[in-house]
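Field reference: "sequence" (input) and "structure" (output). Example, Phosphate import ATP-binding protein PstB 3:
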Amino acid sequence: MSELQPARSNRLTDIAAGKHVDSVIHNELLDVDAALDIKDFSLWYGKKQALHEISMSIPRGEVTALIGPSGCGKSTLLRSVNRMNDLVDGLTVRGDISLGGDSIFSPGVDVIELRKRMGMVFQKPNPFPMSIFENVVYPLRIDGQRDRKVLNSVCEQSLRGAALWEEVRKRLTESGLGLSGGQQQRLCIARAIASEPEVLLLDEPCSALDPLATGKIEDLIDDLRGDYTVLIVTHNMQQASRISDYTAFMYLGRLIEYGPTSQIFTKPLVRETEDYVTGRFG
Ligand SMILES: Nc1ncnc2c1ncn2[C@@H]1O[C@H](COP(=O)(O)OP(=O)(O)OP(=O)(O)O)[C@@H](O)[C@H]1O
């Protein structure tokens, strides 16, 4: 990793040749209040290396987007942060990731507790086959919460937080599966925020939604800013430019450039970032 440096023209060739390439991290991200700190993080699926020495701090209370061509490792990085990749056979990691200053790989870490600190929402909405109410309070139920007042209050608060309350307040006992795709995704966001996580991990949350539902999720992400640290993987560059404060451009498992979204999309420091965001490759 290095501070501002002149753009190099042969990064992609170097990467393809297996050479080490420094990430370019903009000054604004060198000393931030980080909710998540990723340090020299590498990951292998068996013998195949999918992430190469990624170092980046994810600023607290802001929206950070991971962009890059298909297969560059965006989802792998996102799934590493809450140790979802632990379930993959033959996985090896090196380096560290810390949440609120605590390493997620410390020997004593309870992975279930760790995941409670990070809500996750996937590409396809995945409501459980139960009522809207039970979907939202599910994280509290599994924690043994039985107090109806608490459950009611968390349900309302989370649905309001996910901008869904007005649409479903009269049908809380109906199945979550009966909602539209966009409503289901907001229901999943309500479930993700019900346990008051520190970080929200969103893996292409709009890819299965129509433009109207996508717009609502984008508005919602905008509202969540400040209360939550959001890390979002998106294929959609317009979406990244609309909703994120910071953008990280990845290529073939490397972090190429990371900076304020406005700069990444209008004045990137690296030529390859410019080529990607202007659609010249990818
Ligand atoms: N469970 C797995 N086992 C083996 N290889 C994997 C696994 N998951 C991902 N990979 C490989 O790791 C690399 C990174 O994949 P990943 O899904 O993280 O990329 P991505 O940038 O999120 O791609 P996309 O935008 O297409 O979802 C790819 O080469 C992929 O084939």
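The two ends are 23 Å apart (CA to CA).
The CA atoms of residues 13 and 190 lie 44 Å apart.
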